[in-house]
Design goal:
The protein is mainly alpha-helical and about 350 residues long. It contains 12 helices and no strands.
Length: about 350
């Protein structure tokens, strides 16, 4: 088994998250950057395969959220845990992105006040509004996956999660093509979460790799149907990473640089795209090459992500979780008093 840090974290998972974030950043900066939607690449050579970092994120989420569910006593604890982890940092990143885009003067990246308010929910499409940042499309999928796991936790069905996730993978073959685009995206991405869940159960010793092979085969079949053979190859590579993790063969991922990148991966993902796009025109005006523009933008967003991690992510999680524990303790105390009386 892969070793844990003193805080109970799998340090290699942090590094995998950091690598996933870096891949997505490089993909956006070298392949998707447009000065005014429809312009040119930021680099001559694009990291086109970097967009698969999103799928790596989803698989890691399946693993980590399974761990979080088993550590929480009930569904309410899970909700508080996920809220404190996601929303304060997301709201801060929204504000940073909105200010950066406003200062850039690029109208194609800006949203109005109504859209900003809708984005506070992390589900702006429900209100018919665009996201503050193009990268936020993945957050709606994460929330829907959390809702699925929340239902299993609340109804006591998490121990039989393989059965439910297998049903989900099978349904994805038949339902997705008849659904609207955003639901198709949801169904096509769910197998990546299921992949992470399957390997988490192997890591805990509750299942063997052989026992999980049918579930892994369902995931592979689903992503192939939805996204083609390229996604099947990527799923094979992601599965290999998890197998190496279970066998404690990812020593390279314990390097401090990757560990640090992993710690800031969430705020980095949230702020990198439109903040970076806002910088590119100015960097180009002062004569920077495309590669230099990418490097400078990467440094800037890493610094901002580091600040958000330390000033918002860490402090908000500590505050909200401490307040929740105090509240839960008070409620337990009141129940004990009522029983005595």
């Amino acid at each position: 088994m892969a070793p844990k840090s003193p805080a109970g974290r799998l340090t290699e998972l942090d590094a995998m998250r950091g690598l996933a974030a870096l891949l997505v950043v490089l993909f956006h900066y070298t392949c998707l950057y447009v000065e005014v939607k429809g312009g040119t690449r930021a680099n001559d050579v694009g990291v086109w395969w970097g967009h698969y970092g999103v799928q790596l994120f989803f698989a890691i989420s399946g693993f980590v959220i399974s761990m979080s569910l088993e550590r929480t006593q009930n569904a309410a604890d899970f909700v508080v845990s996920r809220f404190s982890r996601l929303f304060p940092t997301y709201w801060a990143a929204m504000l940073v992105t909105t200010v950066a885009v406003k200062l850039s003067g690029n109208p194609n990246l800006q949203v109005d006040g109504v859209a900003f308010l809708a984005n506070l929910s992390m589900l702006p499409s429900v209100f018919g509004q665009p996201p503050v940042d193009g990268s936020y499309w993945t957050l709606a999928i994460e929330l829907q996956f959390y809702l699925f796991l929340f239902g299993l936790k609340a109804t006591g069905r998490f121990p039989s999660i393989e059965k439910w996730t297998a049903a989900l993978a099978i349904l994805s073959f038949f339902i997705a093509r008849a659904m609207p685009l955003q639901i198709v995206t949801l169904w096509s991405e769910f197998p990546w979460f299921v992949l992470g869940i399957a390997f988490y159960r192997i890591w805990t010793g509750e299942r063997s790799l052989t026992q999980q092979l049918p579930l892994l085969a369902l995931c592979a079949g689903s992503v192939t149907v939805h996204n083609g053979l390229a996604s099947l190859v990527i799923m094979g590579l992601v599965s290999s990473l998890f197998i190496l993790l279970l066998k404690n063969r990812l020593g390279l991922f314990r390097q401090p640089l990757l560990q640090g990148l992993g710690l800031i991966s969430y705020p980095l993902y949230l702020i990198h795209q439109y903040v970076g796009y806002s910088l590119f025109p100015t960097l180009k005006e002062i004569g920077m090459s495309r590669s230099m523009m990418t490097s400078v933008a990467l440094i800037v967003v890493v610094v901002i992500a580091w600040a958000l991690h330390h000033c918002v992510e860490v402090t908000s999680q500590a505050f909200l979780r401490t307040r929740w524990k105090l509240y839960r303790g008070q409620q337990v105390g009141k129940r004990r008093v009522s029983l005595i009386l």
